[in-house]
Specification:
Layout (H helix, E strand, L loop, with lengths): L1 H34 L3 E4 L13 E4 L21 H9 L6 E4 L5 H17 L3 E2 L7 H4 L15 E4 L18 E4 L12 H7 L4 H17 L3 E8 L7 H6 L6 H14 L4 E8 L2 H7 L5 E3 L5 H9 L3 E4 L3 H10 L3 E4 L15 H4 L5 E3 L2
Parallel strand pairs: 3-4, 3-6, 5-6, 7-8, 7-10, 8-9, 10-11, 11-12
Antiparallel strand pairs: 1-2
Amino acid sequence: MRKCYFFFVCGCVIVNLGVYQFKSHVVKFMLSFDSNNTQIDLHVYANSSANNERALTLPSSTQNPNNSLANESSSSTRTTTAQQSATSRAIATKLYLTTWFMGRLGNQMFIYASMVGLARAQNRVPVINSGGDLVNTFQITNLNENINTNRWKWVSESAFAIFESKLMNLPPINIIVTGYLQCWRYFQHAQDEIRREFTFVPSIQKEADAVLASCRSKLQNHVIVGVHVRRGDLVLSRNKRLGYGVAKASYFVKAFAKMRSLLPNQNITFLVASDDLTWCIDNINDTSVTFLPKMDAGSHFAILSSCDHVILSSGTFGWWIAWLANGTTIYYKDHIRKNTPLYFTYKDSDYYPPWWIGLRN
């Protein structure tokens, strides 16, 4: 009996020692895990290609006081146990908002402006890792090529040009907002910042200034109205079936007359740029018209957006020309036709500011 009791006691001691050693290993593992995970790797796709991600380490539980998006060196993770514990308890206070780009310049401008506006409305930091066409055209500042938002939550729009209140009330985590985001309400409150962001790079601005200076020297005391005529792919059958409308020559006759009525006793020159210059020359017959020659899109954009007022047919390119010009704007009201697929994802009052003037063919 004594022998059995002896062996029973020895067994309990051995088991307890084993549990203690096991707990020790678990504690060491958790400490090691904590020290190696003070930062979390995240990534974002700057465009539709999944191969364009670039890595940046965002602080998960601590912040660099000089740059909250800066990578910390590997040596910074070699802290004492007490420091590791403090780091694991720290809470990051900043929330970030990013996006990824689709389409050409006008679409990208809507996406970027809406991202900035949504971020500012919710006390977030707007940031992108690639600017698409924007960085070749404008002096964008919210760019960090090392951003990596791999584990951020995606929130997408439900309609391309209808205001959605859910986007103005995002959950309190880092977010990637996606969609075309073509609604002026998302960013009008941040318009001063966005106008600064859409400052042209010097080479483009210099070319635009030269063209306008030449026009003004020949047309002294003239009001210059920029006219953008979008046709190109909009006249294709597939885009007509989607719901895109195309302004006819009669629209421009009405728009020119309306602009003249708004600027009585003024000498007006209509400066026309288009992706279909031949159609314009054949169909826009007005003695006050000057046609811009074929140029790259950025140059046309800079010239027209520097005019006093703007007339546009349709498309985001013309929309942003008018918004940046910030004068009187006349737009083609039927650029999205009723009872078409696009019509049900679009609201006129969310796409066009109410102080712009809409006309039909």
